[in-house]
């Protein structure tokens, strides 16, 4: 069995959905569990619905939801050619449930309503793709992942109950493969034991696929993207990037930690636990080799890995009474960051000060400054960039930092980081 994951970019047009069908058709007689994200920018549009609903701007929220409905109906019309297909009743049911939510008065947290509304995107996309596949001769069965993935009620970042979910996979998913070679389901979402929809946080669809791969003991997982594989740098920021044919689980986790838009570490862990290889391939050209991620790699030396995080802030936290910043003070500072869910991207401490680089989130920074105000003086610089280079080559770091002021630097045997102004 293989697990495939197709993201929103692979579904953003009728032509691309047809292309996805062609990819799946090239694996005849293969058992495939296919995890699908919301189409195109649907998640962003549903976020606007949730925001306006929570602000009690119901007419705006309803209009935005109507626009999403029309977009999906248009795609379904073009793919199926008739509204006699049961798909359209299924889509209507999904939108009716969303309209019921918009008819409520917000009485719970924003995160709760966010999950009830945003989860609609994956339900719509999978229903449409499943119906089109069956019409095109790619026989499959559609499955609601909320019947399988049991989670806690940490809305927008839910944690999977592995025991219950594993049992559900055995009882509800494996039997489907006795009648069908292809099962299509949603990424990113799950359900609490109260049948409330949840989302799984950043890169949730990749993670969903990895959970299935683990529990199904899959041969492999493939993430189909609009790039030929993993690159040594973001091609939108750096010219002449290099494709990486093989890389280890641990190296990908390091890249993600430093801010590379690659595979999220939580996706890697379920695969690493069972030594399941992860392939990153192009849906634009399925014949390209792509990248394979596994425990060990035959490549002895990787090219320089370059990561650039923009819109960074340097915070300098100084003791008001000139006490040393010792372990207990650092622990106290860490606790404030943890409480506000602020990730530290780079840090350095001196005798009476602690400096750190974080993403620029004005709301969280304001809360943090209020938390620390009584005990510390705080200064900060905005508009900075954090440059990380692994496996540096002679002259590369200097070239990338040319004509920039280095505010902070850290080095190890493999990695160099510079905070640049």
TrEMBL record:
Keywords, ordered alphabetically: Amino-acid biosynthesis, ATP-binding, Kinase, Nucleotide-binding, Transferase
Highest taxon, organism lineage: Bacteria
Record-listed E.C. numbers: 2.7.2.4
Residue span, Aspartate/glutamate/uridylate kinase domain: 2-282
GO molecular function: aspartate kinase activity
Pfam families in UniProt: AA_kinase
Reactions it catalyzes: L-aspartate + ATP = 4-phospho-L-aspartate + ADP
Family designation: Belongs to the aspartokinase family.
Identification of the protein by name: Aspartokinase
């Amino acid at each position: 069995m293989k697990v495939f994951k197709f993201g929103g970019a692979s579904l953003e047009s009728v032509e691309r959905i047809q292309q996805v069908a062609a990819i799946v058709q090239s694996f005849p007689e293969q058992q495939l569990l296919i995890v699908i994200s919301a189409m195109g920018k649907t998640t962003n549009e549903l976020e606007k619905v949730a925001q306006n609903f929570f602000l009690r701007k119901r007419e705006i929220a309803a209009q935005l939801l109507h626009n999403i409905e029309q977009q999906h109906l248009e795609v379904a019309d073009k793919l199926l050619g008739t509204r006699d297909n049961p798909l359209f009743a299924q889509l209507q049911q999904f939108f009716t449930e969303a309209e019921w939510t918009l008819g409520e008065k917000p009485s719970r947290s924003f995160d709760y309503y966010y999950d009830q509304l945003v989860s609609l995107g994956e339900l719509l996309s999978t229903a449409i793709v499943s119906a089109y596949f069956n019409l095109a001769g790619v026989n499959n069965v559609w499955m609601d992942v909320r019947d399988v993935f049991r989670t806690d009620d940490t809305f927008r970042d839910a944690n999977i109950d592995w025991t219950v979910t594993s049992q559900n996979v055995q009882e509800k998913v494996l039997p489907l493969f006795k009648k069908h070679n292809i099962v299509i389901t949603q990424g990113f979402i799950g359900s609490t034991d109260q049948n409330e929809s949840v989302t799984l946080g950043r890169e949730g669809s990749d993670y969903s696929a990895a959970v299935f791969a683990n529990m199904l003991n899959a041969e492999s997982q493939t993430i189909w993207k609009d790039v030929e594989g993993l690159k040594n740098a973001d091609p939108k920021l750096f010219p002449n990037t290099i494709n990486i044919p093989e890389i280890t689980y641990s190296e990908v986790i390091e890249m993600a930690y430093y801010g590379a838009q690659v595979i999220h570490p939580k996706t890697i862990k379920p695969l690493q636990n069972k030594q399941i290889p992860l392939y990153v391939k192009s849906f634009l050209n399925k014949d390209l080799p792509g990248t394979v991620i596994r425990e060990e790699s035959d490549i002895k030396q990787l090219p320089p890995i370059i990561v650039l995080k923009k819109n960074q802030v340097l915070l300098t936290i100084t003791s008001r009474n000139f006490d040393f910043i010792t372990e207990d003070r650092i622990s106290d500072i860490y606790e404030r960051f943890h409480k506000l869910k602020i990730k530290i991207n780079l840090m350095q401490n001196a005798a009476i000060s602690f400096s750190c680089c974080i993403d620029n989130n004005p709301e969280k920074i304001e809360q943090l400054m209020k938390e620390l105000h009584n005990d510390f003086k705080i200064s900060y610089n905005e508009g900075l960039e954090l440059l990380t280079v692994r496996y540096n080559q002679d002259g590369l770091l200097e070239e990338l930092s040319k004509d920039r002021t280095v505010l902070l630097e850290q080095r190890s045997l493999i990695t160099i980081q510079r905070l640049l102004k």
